[in-house]
Amino acid sequence: MTALWWWLGVGIVVIALVGFYLSMTAGRLDRLHQRIDTSALTLDGHLLRRSATCLELAASGLLDPATSLVIVEAAHESRRASDRDDAERALVESNLTAALGAALDVDEVAEVDIDPDGCALLDDLAASCRRVELSRRFHNDAVRACRQVRRQRLVRLFRLAGHTPWPETWEMDDAMPEGLRSR
Q1: Which pLDDT tens digit goes with each residue over 142-175?
Q2: Closest residue by Cα to residue 54 from 87, 92, 83
Q3: What are the two backbone dihedrals, phi and then psi, of residue 93, each rounded to the nearest 5 degrees?
Q4: Whose CA, among 13, 123, 139, 148, lies 20 to 30 Å from 57?
Q5: Boundaries of every domain in the chain
Q6: CB 121 within 8 A of CB 53
Q7: Phi-psi category of 61—alpha, beta or left, where left has phi over 0 and alpha has psi -120 to 50?
Q8: Could you report the per-residue pLDDT of 26-66, keeping only the tens digit for each?
């Protein structure tokens, strides 16, 4: 009879430990999903700020008209793409990065840098580009961590993620333009 109680006690302890583990994992998964949502919103804000800074630089009259037009078109398309799905928006944002890379070479930046307002605009643009790069990294790190937890066998078995869609990384070209790398 005592062996029965002993096995029953062991069973209750095992069930309690598994329940505690599942509860902790579900909480961790929830925090990771919140972190993904927060980092996606932060990235969105930084992308919008970068496009606004590009528009401001292009409208300043410090760049030649052809360069300004290329930057304005790419930045305007970037601002309009905020309602599109992530893959399409990443392509548009990569196009803005390519336009900035083509327009802001070392010589062009040196010419704009002479003007004090131009120097401030270039500093703002460099900071915006850096923030976009860091925000994308943080977002992708959160997605990788969430995916790692969601791949665990018990998480899948007990459906701890519920009906939350599978998180996706944000893949885009966010390289700093050559002329702005020294800032």
Answers
A1: 999 999 999 999 999 999 999 999 999 999 999 9
A2: 92
A3: -65, -35
A4: 139
A5: 2-180
A6: yes
A7: left
A8: 999 999 999 999 999 999 999 999 999 999 999 999 999 99
